[in-house]
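Q: A reviewer asked whether we had any structural model of the full assembly, not just the individual parts. We don't, so I'm hoping you can provide one. Inputs are below.
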Amino acid sequence: MRVVFVGPPASGKGTQAKFVCAKFGIAQVSTGDMLRAAKTAGKLPADLVAKMAAGALVPDDVVIALIDERTRAADCAPGFLLDGFPRTVPQARALGDMLTGRGVERGAELSLDVPRDLLIERAVLRRTDKRTGQIYHLKYSPPPPGADLEHRADDHEEVVRKRLDTYEAMTADLLPYYAGLGILRRVDGVGTMDEVTARVLGALGAK
Ligand code: AP5
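A: Here is a predicted structure for the entire assembly that you could use as a starting point for your response.
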């Protein structure tokens, strides 16, 4: 099983990805998580660290190579969910070529639609547990006492606005590209997490 989540920053891709991956026993592959892990390990070049901190995208060839290698790992054999990739038409084409080259079908492509004001609130109040990777929200999904919380460097409001601008500019081509292929299913991402999960599972033909 292969699923692709596209959607703006803080639309709930990571939150919903965890439910979908647990339900279907597939691997969650998040380019953002991989890049942050590389940064923490001191393995991300300084120019890419700066791009992420400024809310810009890293170059296509970097994330395409990451995805190509990561999706060959054993835990991806039953299937995988791509969270945050592709973001550009060249990335989408590379993914299509990658899957065709491996003789596998594309799978489902879902976009989560959430209005800009709500995206800003979701990002600015997001906190992540450094130990477990669990995503919380100070208003909608408060962390338990004692959680070791991190506020992402790119979740400060001015950077969030820049990320949203970047997303809108880059995906102005991506979403029509997918729509043209007739494989994009749009999911309303507004509502409680459970409501959105039900819509996502419905779009995947599951309950
Ligand atoms: P990445 O980590 O992919 O960031 P993103 O796409 O901006 O997505 P987020 O992680 O911000 O949000 P999300 O949609 O997963 O939302 P979440 O579930 O956490 O990328 C970071 C950077 O890496 C990029 O800016 C770029 O520099 C680089 N990068 C990554 N991929 C790249 C690529 N392919 N090409 C080039 N560069 C790339 O939810 C957000 C918050 O809302 C949480 O607090 C959550 O608890 C809350 N929430 C979720 N759902 C609900 C709900 N239904 N109701 C209320 N609250 C909710």
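A: Points you may want to mention in the reply: Residues 7, 9-15, 31-32, 35, 51-52, 55-58, 63, 84-87, 91, 122-123, 126, 135-137, 140-141, 154, 163, 191-193, 196 surround BIS(adenosine)-5'-pentaphosphate (CB under 6 Å). The chain has one domain: 2-203.
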